[in-house]
Automatic annotation (TrEMBL):
Gene3D superfamilies: 3.40.190.80, Fructose-1,6-Bisphosphatase, subunit A, domain 1. Keywords: Carbohydrate metabolism, Cytoplasm, Hydrolase, Magnesium, Metal-binding. GO terms for cellular component: cytosol. Its cofactor is Mg(2+). It comes from Denitratimonas tolerans. Homotetramer. Mg(2+) 2 binds at residues 120, 123, 286. It is found in: Cytoplasm. Pathway: Carbohydrate biosynthesis. This is Fructose-1,6-bisphosphatase class 1. The keyword Membrane does not apply. Transmembrane segments: none annotated.
Length: 344
C-alpha cells in the first residue's frame, strides 16, 4: 500500500468521488451517489455492530436465509439498512442480497437508475457473537438498458463490474473501494462521521509466505489441493524451500483485507463434503467483488481452473471455489489443478 501523498492526505470519500467524476471522468453522478449511499449505510452498520452486547443486536434472528443458514440479528439489520438506504435515491434499477431469495425491485414510487447493486450485508456473521471482525461486501453492475431487472439481468460475469468494495468492521472501520482504476482505502473518522482516504493504489506482493484456508476440510479436498497445501506445510524441507505461516479468520473480508495489506493467498476450494456444491463462497457478492479488487491490486483470483471474473453466472446464489491473493501463489495452485485435470 502506498502511503497517502500529502496532497491527498485527509481527503474525504465525498471529495475523492467528486474528483473521480469531475476531474477523471471515471464515474458518473449516479455511480458517485451509489457509492456515497453504500458508504453511509456501512457507517450505520458499523454503529450497530459496535454496540455488541450493549444493543439488542447479538444472537440469532430465529430465521433462515435463502442459503438455509441461520440468520443473525445483525444479518437482518444490515440487510434492512442497505435496502432502505438504496431504494429512494434514483441510482439503482434493482438490488440483490445474500439474505434474499430474489432480487429486490425499486418501489414504483421512486425513480429508477442505471445500476444494479449486489451485496453480502454482513459477511462472517458467525463471528459476531465472539467479537471477531465482520464486514459488508458489494458489487456494482450496469442494468441492461430499459430492463425492469429480474434475476437474469444480474447474471453478468465479474468483468462487467463497474465498482466493488468492502467495509471491514474491526479495530477501525475501513472501506476499500475500486472503480476500475486501482484500489483505495478509507478509514472511518468517528468524530467527523466521514470516511477519510488512508491508502492509495493498494498493491498485493506477487509472492507471499502466508496462506489462509480452513484446514479441517483437508480430507475432503481434491488431490491437487492437498498437494499444494502439503508443499506449503513442508516448508524449507519441501519443494518450495521456505516456511509458510497460516491464518484463518473465517471472515472473508478480514482475511482478504490482511492479504490486501501484506500479501497472502486465500483459498476456499471445492470439497467433497457436499459434492452438489462446487465450494462455499458465492460468486456474485463474495468472489466477484473480491476478485475485482484483488486484480486491481495486482493480485490474481481463480476458481482453481479459470479466472473468477470470467465465470458466467447461472444462478444468483451460485457458489464457486476461490483462490485469490498473491499472483505467483494463485498461479502455482491453479497450475497444479490444471495439471491434474490434464492427467485425467
Ligand atoms: P468456514 C463466512 O461464513 C464465510 O462465508 C466467509 O466469510 C469465510 O471466509 C468462510 O465462510 C468461512 O467458512 O467453513 O471456515 O466457517
Amino acid at each position: 500500500m502506498s502511503s497517502v501523498p500529502a496532497s491527498s492526505a485527509g481527503i474525504s470519500l465525498s471529495r475523492f468521488l467528486i474528483e473521480a467524476q469531475r476531474d477523471q471522468g471515471h464515474i458518473d453522478a449516479q455511480l458517485r451517489l451509489l457509492i456515497e449511499v453504500v458508504a453511509r449505510a456501512c457507517k450505520r452498520i458499523s454503529i450497530a455492530v459496535g454496540r455488541g452486547a450493549l444493543g439488542d443486536v447479538l444472537g440469532t434472528a430465529g430465521t433462515e436465509n435463502v442459503q438455509g443458514e441461520t440468520q443473525k440479528k445483525l444479518d437482518v439489520i444490515s440487510n434492512e439498512i442497505l435496502l432502505e438506504a438504496n431504494e429512494w435515491g434514483g441510482h439503482l434499477a434493482g438490488l440483490a442480497s445474500e439474505e434474499m431469495d430474489h432480487p429486490h425491485p425499486i418501489p414504483n414510487r421512486y425513480p429508477k437508475g442505471e445500476y444494479l447493486l449486489v451485496f453480502d450485508p454482513l459477511d462472517g456473521s458467525s463471528n459476531i457473537d465472539v467479537n471477531i471482525s465482520v464486514g459488508t461486501i458489494f458489487s456494482v453492475l450496469r442494468c441492461p438498458p430499459g430492463a425492469n431487472p429480474d434475476e437474469a439481468d444480474f447474471l453478468q460475469p465479474g468483468t462487467r463490474q463497474v465498482a466493488a468494495g468492502y467495509a471491514v468492521y474491526g479495530s477501525s472501520t475501513v472501506l476499500v473501494l475500486t472503480l476500475g482504476q486501482g484500489v483505495y482505502q478509507f478509514t472511518l473518522d468517528r468524530e467527523q462521521g466521514s470516511f477519510v482516504l488512508t491508502g492509495t493504489r493498494l498493491t498485493i506482493p506477487e509472492d507471499t509466505g502466508e496462506f489462509a484456508i480452513n484446514m479441517s476440510n483437508l480430507r475432503h479436498w481434491e488431490a491437487p489441493m492437498r498437494r499444494y497445501i502439503e508443499e506449503l506445510l513442508a516448508g524449507t524441507t519441501g519443494p518450495r524451500g521456505r516456511d509458510f505461516n497460516m491464518r484463518w479468520v473465517a471472515s472473508m473480508v478480514a482475511d482478504v483485507h490482511r492479504i490486501l495489506t501484506r500479501g497472502g493467498i486465500f483459498i476456499y476450494p471445492r470439497d467433497m463434503k457436499d459434492p452438489t456444491k462446487p465450494g462455499k463462497l458465492r460468486l456474485m457478492y463474495e468472489a466477484n467483488p473480491m476478485a475485482f479488487i484483488v486484480e486491481q491490486a495486482g493480485g490474481a483470483a481463480t476458481t482453481g481452473r479459470q479466472r473468477i471474473l470470467d465465470v458466467v453466472p447461472e444462478t444468483l446464489h451460485q457458489r464457486v471455489p476461490v483462490f485469490l491473493g498473491s499472483k505467483n501463489e494463485v498461479e502455482r495452485a491453479t497450475e497444479l489443478h490444471r495439471m491434474a485435470d490434464a492427467a485425467g
